[in-house]
Design goal:
Elements (H helix, E strand, L loop, with lengths): L12 E4 L6 E4 L8 H9 L16 H9 L2 E5 L10 E4 L3 H15 L6 H11 L1 E2 L6 H19 L1
Parallel strand pairs: 4-5
Antiparallel strand pairs: 1-2, 3-4
Length: about 150
């Protein structure tokens, strides 16, 4: 893809840290996501076998969305549950994409395409934003009304 006046060139690309398996974005060819990982490798610490699960192993795009509060945990509901944590967008898809593209361009990290954004969310298992349905709103209204009637009686 050649850059046009409307689409600036993408600066850097996503890479995987050879020490911890985390995904990071860098314009230079780097093997490690941080100085800590570089030092662990220099000291001879055995690399982790697979990329980390959860927020530590998320792509740069999802980590940026978590930092600004556009991705949040939606599960498990119980702290005793053994289920893996689930994450979802807390704002509509278009809003998150526009804001992330603006932030990446401002910091010099390049343009985030719709495909790259969608692939990153899919790879990390982040669910789409869902507003409450009209049926759910009516059910909540009826339940609140019944609760208030019981309290009055």
């Amino acid at each position: 893809m050649t850059p046009t006046p409307n689409t600036p060139a993408r600066v850097g690309r996503e890479r995987t840290c050879t020490q911890c398996g985390a995904t990071f974005r860098s314009p230079r060819k780097r093997d490690y996501c941080s100085n800590a990982c570089r030092m662990k490798a220099k000291r001879g610490t055995v690399p982790e076998a697979a990329p980390r699960a959860g927020p530590a192993g998320f792509t740069v795009i999802t980590k940026a969305l978590i930092a600004v509060g556009y991705v949040g945990s939606i599960g498990p509901i119980s702290s005793r549950s053994k289920d893996a944590p689930a994450y979802a967008l807390t704002v509509p898809f278009e809003h998150a994409l526009d804001e992330l593209s603006f932030q990446f361009n401002r910091k010099g990290l390049g343009y985030v395409s719709r495909e790259e954004f969608t692939d990153a969310l899919r790879a990390d298992g982040v669910e789409d934003f869902h507003a409450r349905s009209p049926e759910a709103v009516d059910l909540n209204r009826r339940q609140t009304r019944r609760r208030m009637e019981r309290l009055r009686a």
